[in-house]
Design a protein that fits this description.
The complex is a heterodimer of chains A (195) and B (429).
Chain A (H helix, E strand, L loop, with lengths): L1 H42 L6 H23 L15 H35 L13 H31 L13 H15 L1
Helix pairs in contact in A: 1-2, 1-4, 2-4, 3-4
Chain B lengths: L1 H15 L3 H34 L6 H15 L5 H9 L5 H14 L5 H18 L4 H12 L9 H10 L3 H7 L1 H21 L12 H7 L3 H17 L4 H18 L5 H35 L1 H11 L4 H16 L4 H18 L4 H15 L7 H10 L3 H24 L2 H8 L4
Helix pairs in contact in B: 1-2, 2-14, 3-13, 3-14, 4-5, 5-6, 5-7, 5-10, 6-7, 6-19, 7-10, 7-19, 7-20, 8-17, 8-18, 9-21, 10-20, 12-13, 14-17, 15-17, 16-17, 16-18, 17-18, 18-20
Classes of the chains: A mainly alpha (195), B mainly alpha (429).
């Protein structure tokens, strides 16, 4: 099972690198919007590139570069209310199947986005806007983010399958859902620890 | 048949805990493949991700989330309660009423109700308990006051509704102001009613001199400025909601600087948290778009609208059933997931019945507020329990009177749509 752990760690390095860029893009969006508004209202000189810069590149980087890391950190919301009531093997098997399907769908998206990126690059495509920025540069972050997400989903599929076979968790699990029952239990445990 | 298979698959995946976005994308893809084969599926998978993400208007969500992160980092909202308590704290139950005002104030500069509940828990509950407030009353009022952030602009929930329903976000945000004030008043009146029934629940506090009161108001100034920067610019037409969100995030960053809490590490953490929260919402929107293409092809929504239109029942009965459904769903599901899964189907029905989409959006969000505090998945109650280490049964007990008051407010807003629609109609465009 070391191979699973090593794979997860390798993926994590890439995910962390991408999400840092997503955070940077977020900061740049804020600065661009503020500068644009200030320049427009106080100097009547709006940034002509702000709309394209944000919609073509920055928001794409925020979304697609944060995508795999958010999956890794269990940040994509799920309805986890029923999970504790499912038999463990059944739950792992179900998740393995769901992630297998997720891997296929995300791989298809990543493949089509890569294809688009390549075609845009070869044809040197530019949008019909004020500034002819390259389209392939807008598609590339989307393809990269989706490929990394696909790899994380594939890892989850394999790890959940292994967990279903072993009957014990061999995959990082999300924190248990907060329900009135679980919260009361954790409170009584912490009170016992204190006393 | 295809619709039944795809819906069964979707619900199975949701049941076992697959991320909502992924479940929507997978089931939608299967449905598209079954209906139109590989060419249709690949065509949609190729275009949808970028058409979802490459949107200037979409940055409203990440920017308002970032603004909420910076507001929490700045700590400026921590003193809101002190300011409100100086003015009404001497009344019996005054600190609980001040909590509601602080919740509304926090809501006016942040769209995150859990962040609001956490901030209020840390600042208000110790003060109330020290003064001899009944813990049930104190914790209940904090949990419910935290939900005001969902309604008072900037509200992430209303923005999300606007994006899903293709309704003007500016109208929605401004439409949330008066209902937000009404909900705040409802919380205050509920507290007043509770202490009138049993005065031992909350003693009267000390009074403050006018100088003390005025000096406490100083903390309100930066928050008021931030509120004006965001909601004021949207209302006056100076900025679009998208621009206002960026200005708001920057304004909150300036507050972090003024509070001397600006550091590379803290800002980086806020940016990372905001990036992940935004990504989570955008991924759900992407999944919903893929599923939406399939659902449109099935004409299910059209069939539901036709079916409901043919029913010989008052439209108000249908609305009541829908709202009860939202309250029940709120007990088990996350509010964002509820909006994504239900609005595309429910809104066409509601519009076909002749209701206003802006008004309906605000009502849905007020109903979602109830879901934030009802067991077994009342997130705000958990936040309060975690911060205060009080038993959940006590917190849910304290919320119960506010639950009934919320139902009255929902009825009031449903009966008088102008409560929502009037203010947006006076906006400069």
């Amino acid at each position: 099972m070391d191979s699973l752990r090593i794979t997860s760690r390798l993926l994590e390095r890439l995910e962390v690198a991408l999400v840092q860029l997503a955070a940077l893009a977020m900061f740049l969006i804020m600065l661009t919007v503020v500068t644009d508004v200030v320049m427009r209202y106080f100097f009547s000189k709006p940034l002509i590139f702000s709309y394209d810069l944000i919609s073509m590149y920055l928001v794409v980087v925020v979304f697609f570069f944060a995508l795999p890391d958010t999956l890794h950190r269990h940040g994509h919301i799920a309805i986890d209310f029923f999970q504790p009531y499912l038999p463990q093997r059944l739950r792992f098997a179900g998740e393995a199947l769901a992630y297998a399907a997720g891997t296929i769908v995300m791989a298809l998206i990543a493949w089509k986005l890569s294809e688009r990126t390549w075609i845009a690059f070869v044809r040197d495509e530019v949008p019909a806007t004020t500034i002819p920025w390259p389209i392939w540069l807008s598609n590339l972050p989307a393809a990269l983010g989706c490929w990394l997400f696909t790899l994380r989903a594939l890892y989850r599929c394999v790890a959940h399958f292994a967990s279903a076979v072993a009957g014990r968790p061999l995959v990082e699990l999300p924190p248990p859902p907060l329900t009135s029952q679980s919260q009361s239990q954790s409170q009584s445990q912490s009170q016992e620890t204190v006393s | 048949m295809i619709t039944a298979i795809v819906l069964a698959l979707l619900f199975c995946m949701l049941f076992i805990g697959t991320p909502v976005a992924l479940a929507l994308a997978i089931s939608g893809s299967l449905g598209l493949y079954m209906m139109g084969g590989a060419p249709m599926l690949l065509g949609i998978l190729e275009t949808t991700p970028l058409s979802t993400a490459s949107s200037y208007e979409l940055i409203t969500i990440p920017m308002f989330i970032l603004m909420a992160e910076f507001v929490v980092l700045s700590g400026v909202a921590d003193d809101l309660f002190d300011a409100a308590a100086a003015w009404i704290g001497r009344l019996r139950g005054g600190l609980a009423m001040a909590t509601a005002l602080a919740g509304a104030g926090f809501g006016a500069i942040s769209g995150s109700s859990t962040a609001s509940a956490a901030t209020l828990s840390a600042t208000t509950i110790p003060a109330m308990l020290r003064q001899g407030y009944e813990p049930k009353l104190a914790t209940g009022v904090v949990a419910i006051s935290g939900t005001l952030a969902m309604l008072i602009p900037p509200s992430i929930a209303l923005i999300l509704y606007g994006i899903i329903a293709d309704v003007n976000i500016g109208d929605l945000l401004i439409g949330g102001i008066i209902p937000g004030i009404i909900v705040t008043l409802a919380i205050i009146l509920t507290v007043a009613f509770l202490v009138w029934r049993d005065p031992s629940r909350a003693p009267a506090g000390r009074s403050y001199t006018m100088r003390e009161k005025l000096s406490k108001l100083r903390v309100v100034a930066p928050l008021l400025l931030l509120f004006l920067l965001v909601t004021g610019t949207i209302y006056s037409g100076i900025a679009t909601p998208t621009e206002a969100s960026g200005i708001g995030a920057f304004g909150a960053l300036v507050l972090v600087f003024l509070a001397r809490r600006l550091s590379f590490g803290a800002v980086r953490t806020s940016l990372l948290r905001a990036a992940e929260a935004s990504c989570m919402i955008l991924f759900i929107i992407l999944g919903a778009h893929i599923f939406g293409y399939f659902f449109t092809l099935t004409r299910t929504t059209h069939d539901i609208v036709t079916f409901v239109g043919a029913l010989e029942v008052s439209r108000w009965v249908i609305l009541a059933i829908i709202l009860v459904g939202y309250i029940v769903l709120g007990c088990f599901m996350d509010q964002i997931a509820i909006l994504i899964l239900t609005v595309p189907v429910v809104l066409p029905v509601v519009q076909a019945l002749g209701f206003d989409p802006v008004w309906f959006g605000v009502i849905v969000v007020v109903t979602a507020e109830v879901g934030m505090v009802t067991p077994p998945l009342g997130l705000n109650a958990f936040v309060v329990a975690r911060y205060t280490r009080r038993p959940l049964s006590e917190i849910f007990g304290g919320i119960l009177p506010h639950f009934w008051a919320h139902l009255l407010v929902i009825t009031l807003i449903a009966a008088f749509p102008a409560i929502v629609t009037w203010l947006p109609s006076t906006m400069s465009r």
